[in-house]
Amino acid sequence: MRGRLEHLMERAARPFATGRFRPLPALALALTLVAGGFAAWAGQDWYRAAHDDRAAYAAQRDAALAAGEQAVQNLNTLDHRDVNQGLDLWESSTTGELHEQLSSGRAEFAEQVKQAETVSTARVLSGAVTELDDRAGRARVLVALRVTVKASDGARTDKDSRMLGELTRTEGRWKLSALGQAPVGGTPAG
Fold first, then answer.
1. What is the phi-psi region of residue 124: left when phi exceeds 0, alpha when psi lies from -120 to 50, beta otherwise?
2. Which tens digit of pLDDT belongs to each residue from 115-139?
3. pLDDT tens column, 15-24
4. How many CB atoms lie within 10 A of CB 129?
5. Residue 44: partners with Cβ closer than 8 Å, 6 or more residues away
6. Which residues have a Cβ under 8 Å from the Cβ of 86 and sit 6 or more positions away?
7. What is the DSSP letter of 181?
8. Residue 142 CB partners (closer than 8 Å, separation 6+)
9. Helix (H), strand (E), coil (C) string for 119-177
10. Cβ-contact 55, 149 below 8 angstroms
11. What is the pTM of this model?
12. Is residue 61 a contact partner of residue 128, using CB atoms and an 8 Å limit?
């Protein structure tokens, strides 16, 4: 038995004793280990990104900002030639008390705009979300915009303003629930 064991050990040691090194199997093993390590790292990174609450929060912030900017622009745009379409847009952009105020005063306001024969258009210059409570479905935005008013005599005036809007998420959509003028630097708020 001892002779057979010595023979097997001698046979197993022969490639090392002859100095013959086989690089292909060693390279394959090394590449397999590197590929496995990379796959594990990439999988872990993907899992962290997919389950990161910050990404969902950022998406809600972006959605609130886009909806807030659009709603503020909508509420500052109105054409006397199609006042009902403009007021419909106002109502679809709002919710809560602001929506109720616009709906209840609609007929009177439409008449005033038709008599004035003005066309106002708004363009958002910049905007930012100042607060976001995703769980409660509430956000606040600050929107800078330029409102251009064209009178019936052709006179045109541009006015830059900053608006503070409160948004409420209703049925999965952000809508304005309050809107007011933002205080200008040096002017006390409230």
1. beta
2. 999 999 999 999 999 999 989 999 9
3. 555 556 677 7
4. 17
5. none
6. 77, 78, 79
7. E
8. 127, 128, 130, 162, 163, 164, 165, 182
9. EEEEEEEEEEEEEEECCCCEEEEEEEEEEEEECCCCCEEEEEEEEEEEEEEECCEEEEE
10. no
11. 0.70
12. no
According to DSSP, the β-strands at 173-181 and 78-79 are unpaired
**Exposure string over 66-78, b if 16+ CB within 10 A, otherwise e:** ebbbbbbbbbbbb
Question: Pick from 141, 185, 148: which is nearest to 163 by CA?
Answer: 141
Are 175 and 67 in contact by the 8 Å Cβ rule? The answer is yes
Sequence-distant (6+) residues with CB within 8 A of 92 are: none
Beta-carbon contacts of 131 under 8 Å, excluding residues fewer than 6 positions away, are: 138, 139, 140
Identify how many contiguous H helices and E strands the chain contains and give both numbers. 6, 5
Provide, for the chain, the percentages of residues in helix, strand and coil under a 3-state DSSP scheme, each rounded to the nearest 5.
50, 30, 20
Q: How far is residue 90's CA from residue 94's CA, in Å, rounded to a whole number?
A: 7
The region that residue 119 occupies, defined by phi over 0 for left and psi between -120 and 50 for alpha, beta otherwise, is beta
d(CA 182, CA 121): 19
In angstroms, the first-to-last Cα distance of the chain is 101
Residues near 158 by beta carbon (within 8 Å), at least 6 away in sequence: 146, 147, 148
